[in-house]
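Lab notebook, design round three. We kept the backbone fixed and only want residue identities now. Task for the bench partner: fill in a sequence for the structure below.
Input C-alpha cells:
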C-alpha cells in the first residue's frame, strides 16, 4: 500500500471533508519548509465537455479544499468551483482558465483548469506555457476529438510531460481501449494503460492498478473512501494481459525492463514506477489512468499518479534570453530561491480590487513589499499584495519562492512580460507564448452615445487581458471592429460588457478577415513629379511585383490558412511580404531606397481591392531616377505607393479567404 492511499485508508475511514483537518496539519508542517521538489504545476486540458471542471471539482474535494461537490450545470444552482463566472455557470462551459491549488500528501499542487472550446484556446496556451506538466482528459466515449488534437499540439509545443485520464467510463458505449488506440493512431503518442476498469458503463465498479496489481473501490456518497482489495477473479486475465502490454511498451525505451522481460524475471512495482516516471519526463511515454469523474471513481488514484510521475519544477528546463550588448544569448533558468528573481506574467484579470496579474516564478524569491522590474516597460514596480488564487478567492501570502505561482495587484504590465529583480537579472526575458491570429471580426457600437467611454474602457481592458482579442477602427466606415478566435469568443465579450460594465452594445454581422495577393509578375515604371511652385517633388521607381512564394500546393496542417485557387499558404506567412532592392551604384541613394521600402510596407497594410492586408507579394526595385533638388525620401515613398497601386490590379490580383479544416461531431442519434 503506498503512502497516499495509506492516508486515505485511516481506520476508521475519515470522510474527505474531515481529512481537511488532517491536511491542515500536514500543511502546517509542509508550509514551513518550502522545497520546489514538493511542488507540481499542472494544467487540465482537453476537448470541450470532456469533464475537466468536473474532475477538478473532485480534486478540490478530495484535497480538502471544498466541503461539498457541486456539478457543472448541476440541479442545486451552485455550480462547479472553477467555473465561477456568471456566464460560465449559465452556459455550463468554461470560458477562462482558473487557478487553484491543493495539497496531496506532502505535495503542493498548483492546478489550472482550462476551457475546451477552441475560441478560448489562448487560455490553454498561456496555462501550458507556464506549467510543468498536464493531465490530458480524453472522453471514454468520444475518444480523440478535434480539440484533443489542438491541445496535444499545444502540449508538444511547450514540451510538457503529461498523464492521460480517460473519463466518462460510466457512460454507455465507453471504451478505454478504443480511446487508447485513437491516442496512439491520431496523436502518435507512446502510451499504455496503468489501470483497467472493473466493469464499464452502468456497471463500472472500481479501478485496478496494474502496476501494483490491486483493485480499488470508491465508497461513500462521493467516493471519499478508497478501499483496496485483491483483484477479483474475473478481472485477473485482463489485468495480466494489460500489465504485459505496459511492460512491452516500457521495455522499448528501457534496457533494464527489456532485459528482465526477455529473461522472464519478475518486474516489480518499483521498477515499473521508476521507468514510467523517467519516460514520462523524457516525453517518451504517457501513462493512461481511467475512471469517471462524475461518478467519483478514479480521481484520487490519478492524483497519486500526478505526484509520482509528473515533474517538479526543478526537473523542467526553462529557457530565457539574456541581452548581452546588441545580442541575445540563451540561458537556462534555475529553479532555485537563492538565484535572482525572474517571473513571467502569464495572465491578467480585472476585478473589483484592480488588475490582478498571475505570475509564474522561475527563479529567486519575492517578499511582499519588495520591488520587481518589468523588463518590457523598464520600470521598477512595488509588489504590495501577494495572493494565491483559489478560483475567484484569494489567500494572502507574504512570500513566494522559485517554482511556484502567485498573483499580485496593480502591477503595470501586459500578458507575457518578464519581471525580474531589477538588478542582476534585469536584462533577462522569458521565452514568449504562441498567440494565434484572429479569424473573425464583428463591428461593435454602443446603443447609446453615453456608453462610448465605458465601451472604450471595457475594450482596452479585454485587449490587455486577452492577446487574441483585437480592436481596430475601420478608417473608412469609422466603425469599431473587434476581432478574435470565433463568433462565441466575440459574443462573450459583448455579453461581458453588458454584465460587467452595464452598457448595451450592438454587434454587426461577422466579417471575414480576407487577404489580398497577386498571382503574376507585373512591371512598373512610375514617375512622381511635382515641380510647379513651392518645394518640388521628384522620384522615379522602376521594377516589378510578383508572388513571393509560387506554387505552394501542400496542405499544411494548421487551423487557419488562406486559399489561393488550388494553392494553400501557411498561416504564419500571412503577413509575409518582401521588399528587394536590385539597385546598383547610386542611381537611387540608400536613404531613398529605405523610403521606398517603407512606402511598400505601408501599401501592403491595406490592399487596393478590399482594404484588407496584402500578403505574399514581393516588390523588386530595379532602377529609378532622382533630381538633384526635388528628390526626397517623402517623394520616393509616395512614388512607391503609387507604383504598387498601379501594378497591383494588373498582376492578376486575388482575394483570399480563410479556410479551416472542420471535423463535425454529432451524437449517434442524429444519423441513425
Ligand atoms: N456521465 C458522465 N458525465 C460527465 C463525467 N464528467 C463530466 N461529465 C459531464 O459532462 C459535462 C461537461 O463537464 P465539464 O466538467 O463542464 O467539462 P469541461 O471539460 O470542463 O468542459 P469545458 O470546460 O466547457 O470544455 C457535464 O454535464 C458533466 O456533468 C463523467 O465522468 N461521466
Ligand atoms: Mg470546464
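Proposed sequence:
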Amino acid at each position: 500500500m503506498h503512502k497516499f492511499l495509506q492516508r486515505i485508508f485511516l481506520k476508521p475511514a475519515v470522510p474527505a471533508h474531515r481529512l481537511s483537518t488532517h491536511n491542515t496539519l500536514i500543511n502546517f508542517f509542509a508550509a514551513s519548509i518550502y522545497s520546489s521538489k514538493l511542488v507540481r504545476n499542472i494544467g487540465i486540458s482537453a476537448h470541450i465537455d470532456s469533464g475537466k471542471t468536473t474532475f477538478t471539482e473532485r480534486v478540490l474535494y478530495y484535497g480538502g479544499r471544498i466541503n461539498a461537490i457541486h456539478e457543472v450545470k448541476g440541479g442545486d444552482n451552485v455550480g462547479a468551483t472553477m467555473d465561477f463566472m456568471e456566464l460560465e455557470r449559465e452556459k455550463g462551459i468554461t470560458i477562462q482558465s482558473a487557478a487553484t491549488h491543493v495539497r496531496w500528501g506532502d505535495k503542493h499542487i498548483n492546478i489550472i483548469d482550462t476551457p475546451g472550446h477552441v475560441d478560448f484556446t489562448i487560455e490553454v496556451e498561456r496555462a501550458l506555457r507556464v506549467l510543468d506538466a498536464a493531465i490530458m482528459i480524453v472522453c471514454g466515449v468520444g475518444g480523440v476529438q478535434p480539440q484533443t488534437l489542438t491541445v496535444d499540439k499545444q502540449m508538444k509545443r511547450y514540451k510538457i510531460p503529461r498523464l492521460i485520464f480517460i473519463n466518462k467510463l460510466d457512460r454507455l458505449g465507453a471504451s478505454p481501449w478504443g480511446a487508447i488506440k485513437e491516442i496512439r493512431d491520431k496523436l502518435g503518442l507512446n502510451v499504455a494503460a496503468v489501470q483497467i476498469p472493473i466493469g464499464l458503463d452502468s456497471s463500472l465498479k472500481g479501478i485496478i492498478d496494474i502496476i501494483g496489481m490491486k483493485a480499488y473501490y470508491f465508497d461513500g456518497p462521493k467516493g471519499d473512501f478508497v478501499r483496496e482489495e485483491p483483484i477479483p477473479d474475473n478481472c485477473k486475465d485482463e489485468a495480466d494481459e494489460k500489465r504485459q502490454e505496459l511492460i512491452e511498451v516500457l521495455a522499448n525505451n528501457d534496457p533494464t525492463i527489456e532485459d528482465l522481460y526477455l529473461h522472464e524475471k519478475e518486474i516489480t512495482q518499483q521498477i515499473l514506477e521508476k521507468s514510467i516516471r523517467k519516460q514520462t519526463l523524457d516525453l517518451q511515454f504517457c501513462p493512461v489512468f481511467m475512471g469517471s469523474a462524475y461518478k467519483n471513481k478514479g480521481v484520487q488514484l490519478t492524483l497519486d499518479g500526478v505526484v509520482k510521475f509528473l515533474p517538479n519544477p526543478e526537473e523542467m528546463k526553462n529557457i530565457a534570453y539574456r541581452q548581452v550588448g546588441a545580442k541575445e544569448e540563451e540561458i537556462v533558468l534555475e529553479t532555485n530561491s537563492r538565484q535572482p528573481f525572474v517571473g513571467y506574467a502569464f495572465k491578467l484579470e480585472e476585478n473589483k480590487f484592480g488588475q490582478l496579474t498571475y505570475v509564474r516564478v522561475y527563479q529567486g524569491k519575492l517578499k511582499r513589499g519588495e520591488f520587481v522590474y518589468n523588463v518590457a516597460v523598464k520600470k521598477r514596480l512595488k509588489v504590495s499584495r501577494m495572493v494565491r488564487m483559489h478560483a475567484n478567492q484569494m489567500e494572502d501570502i507574504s512570500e513566494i519562492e522559485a517554482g511556484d505561482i502567485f498573483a499580485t495587484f496593480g502591477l503595470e504590465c501586459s500578458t507575457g512580460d518578464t519581471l525580474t529583480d531589477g538588478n542582476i537579472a534585469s536584462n533577462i526575458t522569458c521565452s514568449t507564448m504562441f498567440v494565434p491570429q484572429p479569424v473573425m471580426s464583428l463591428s461593435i457600437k454602443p446603443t447609446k452615445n453615453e456608453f462610448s467611454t465605458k465601451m472604450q474602457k471595457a475594450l482596452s481592458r479585454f485587449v490587455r487581458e486577452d492577446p487574441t482579442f483585437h480592436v481596430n477602427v475601420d478608417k473608412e466606415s469609422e466603425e469599431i471592429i473587434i476581432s478574435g478566435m470565433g463568433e462565441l469568443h466575440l459574443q462573450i465579450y459583448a455579453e461581458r460588457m453588458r454584465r460587467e460594465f452595464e452598457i448595451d452594445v450592438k454587434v454587426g454581422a461577422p466579417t471575414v478577415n480576407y487577404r489580398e495577393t497577386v498571382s503574376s509578375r507585373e512591371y512598373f515604371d512610375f514617375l512622381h513629379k511635382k515641380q510647379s511652385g513651392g518645394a518640388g517633388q521628384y522620384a522615379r521607381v522602376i521594377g516589378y511585383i510578383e508572388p513571393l512564394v509560387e506554387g505552394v500546393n501542400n496542405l499544411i496542417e494548421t487551423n487557419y490558412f488562406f486559399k489561393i485557387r488550388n494553392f494553400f499558404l501557411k498561416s504564419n506567412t500571412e503577413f509575409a511580404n518582401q521588399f528587394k532592392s536590385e539597385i546598383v551604384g547610386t542611381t537611387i541613394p540608400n536613404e531613398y531606397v529605405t523610403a521606398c521600402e517603407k512606402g511598400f510596407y505601408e501599401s501592403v497594410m491595406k490592399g487596393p481591392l478590399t482594404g484588407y492586408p496584402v500578403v505574399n507579394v514581393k516588390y523588386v526595385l530595379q532602377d529609378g531616377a532622382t533630381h538633384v533638388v526635388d528628390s526626397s525620401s517623402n517623394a520616393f515613398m509616395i512614388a512607391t505607393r503609387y507604383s504598387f497601386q498601379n501594378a497591383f490590379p494588373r498582376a492578376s490580383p486575388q482575394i483570399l479567404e480563410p479556410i479551416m479544416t472542420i471535423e463535425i461531431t454529432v451524437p449517434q442519434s442524429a444519423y441513425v
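Keep this in mind before ordering anything: Confidence is low (pLDDT under 50) at residues 1-31, 552-574.
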